[in-house]
Amino acid sequence: MTLFSCAAVRRRLSAFHDRELPVRDLIDVQAHSAGCARCAAEIREMRLLGDALRQAAAPGPADDWTGLQSGVISRMRAEAHESWTARTGRMFDDMHLIWIGLAATMAAFICGAVALGSLHLASSDREDSLAAMMAVISQPSGSNLNPVRADHSLKVPSVSEGGAIEVMLAQPISREELVLALSAVVTREGRVSGVFVLNTEGPEDITAILDVLSRAQLEPGRMGTSPVAVNLVWLLAHTTVRAKAPPQTI
């Protein structure tokens, strides 16, 4: 046994209280404090101070800490399993699913291209279709798509003097008498559109006439001071007057 002095024991009181001394030193300190009232009093004061600190400290959790390490490890593994990197890696575990997804995507693109191509190559809307009729009805009256009919309250379109139509009528035509009933629409800008011949015997005589009419510029119809598109029937008459030859004298 080693005999410690009071100074040596006081230096070892903290380690003695925490049971951190070697067994031999622990026995020597206990033996010294049993015979030294002053060192024994300091050991009691240190124990009382430790008890006071433990009572003043916040109480520890009442839960059972058994299995805490395994629970933390399990939670870390679950978080790693649900991370984006782990999910991305699992996506490529089954490559046949990747090929199925790529094939479905390509099929969708091909179907979309075929549908767009069909719409692009489809014929334009017919004028007598329901969609065209609804589009015409939805337009305001007097517009180019919804022309009005000529009546007494409307100033009908007129032919400007010296225009292309008068020049055309002044040209010789193979027939001496030519009467054409034309259905046409004169737009708000004075252009002639939708020319349709109601009565004719042959197209060879009227090709030039229809060509000039389609390029003609008229005075548009007006309702008050506003120009309007007019749907009208146009009667075009062409008469060639020939003088009779004087009688021959003998």
What's the arrangement of secondary structure elements?
Elements: H1 6-11, H2 13-17, H3 23-35, H4 37-56, H5 68-81, H6 84-91, H7 95-121, H8 130-138, E1 148-149, H9 164-170, E2 177-186, E3 192-199, H10 207-214, E4 221-223, E5 226-228, E6 230-239
Parallel strand pairs: 1-6
Antiparallel strand pairs: 2-3, 2-6, 4-5
Helix pairs in contact: 3-4, 9-10
Question: What would the keywords be for this entry?
Answer:
two-stranded antiparallel ribbon; 250 residues; 10 helices; TolA/TonB C-terminal domain; four-stranded mixed beta sheet; alpha+beta
Summed up, what is this model?
The chain is an alpha+beta fold and 250 residues long. It has helices at 6-11, 13-17, 23-35, 37-56, 68-81, 84-91, 95-121, 130-138, 164-170, 207-214; strands at residues 148-149, 177-186, 192-199, 221-223, 226-228, 230-239. The chain contains ten helices and six strands; from the N terminus they run ααααααααβαββαβββ.
